[in-house]
Sequence to fold (387 residues):
Amino acid sequence: MKFCKTFPMKYRFISVLVLAWVPVFSHKIQNPITAAAPPDTRVILITLDGFRWQEVFLGADSSLLHDPDYTPDTATLKMLYWHPEAESRRKMLMPFFWSVFGKRGQIFGNRLYGNNMNVSNFYSLSYPGYNEMLTGMADPFISSNRKIKNPNFSVLEFMNQLPELKSQVAVFASWNIFPYILHRERSRLMIYSGSETLPECDKLLSPTFYEIQSENSKNPTRYDVLTFLAAKEYLKNKKPKFLYIAFGETDEFAHDKRYDLYLQQANAIDRMIAELWNWTQTCSEYRNKTYFLITTDHGRGRKKHKWPYHNALTPGSSEIWAAISGPDILPVGEIKIPQQNYLYQIAPTLAQLMGISFPAKDIYSKALPVKQTNELLAATSEKNISP
Ligand SMILES: [Zn+2]
Fold:
């Protein structure tokens, strides 16, 4: 995120061209509409900023792992994350993800099977991506990561207006732009991002937490582990029905050209997700009624020397992935059939999981096909291309 706070000048002429013909879509504030009483479900949404589908499905990339410019200590990283077979490699990198979502959930975005998932916004930057994901529409006027209050209406804001979900939605983000992306003043969402302190959390966290956070306060992205600790304490104590945790350091390390730290952070987040999952399985309010949805806001360059970057002109930047698990999600693991899904489908998917009706137009109401037919999925499981 740090290298993409503003849309580069040389690309602005392209955005002007795009604005000339792309129709403007935006969710205006609407009165909440809900169907029948929503089921008593919980959703935990997790994002890993700028984490590529290549590492999710294929594990560590040999060319980046063996280049001392990106991986200063190749020997140690190879011990941790290298195996000649991609299926073993990806499990070394994200063992919990592959043992749980790979067996009990569904994972979208393995392009080797033609299962494509992309952002639909033109820019492949963070703010445009989070806007698309949370509001259910790409907005051509959101073209940078500048601190602009989002005019669009997110599914989280919508939930927060429903009487049965009021104060049941919480957001913990490492990146300090989230209060703008979710327009905190208007949405009144509980958002705890960057180096902020919030009264809701003060009693839950130790003085050491704040000491570490203040040391890091000049950075727009807080350490992910602090975001996680705050979110976990809030989850245990306040038990929100909808929790969003937005991790940011994978993108930061990639911009810093540190492939070793990028991999280690993904591995650390995998352990954090495991801890949250285990906790939900031991808590009666969450056990057997909690969905986990994990995704990212954009891809990155496919080629070795383009990997640190993501933008409209770097091929691969629009390529993303998503994983889901929960009570009635068919446990087929990796989806191995050709499909095209988009980031904007996350918002209607979240609404569907929460059992609410989020107003959206036409294609933008299309959730991820997480409740696919058994026949389709049987065909999936028979295919097996070695990645
Ligand atoms: Zn970035």
User: Anything to note?
Assistant: Residues 39-380 form a domain with the Alkaline Phosphatase, subunit A fold (CATH 3.40.720.10). The chain has one domain: 39-380.
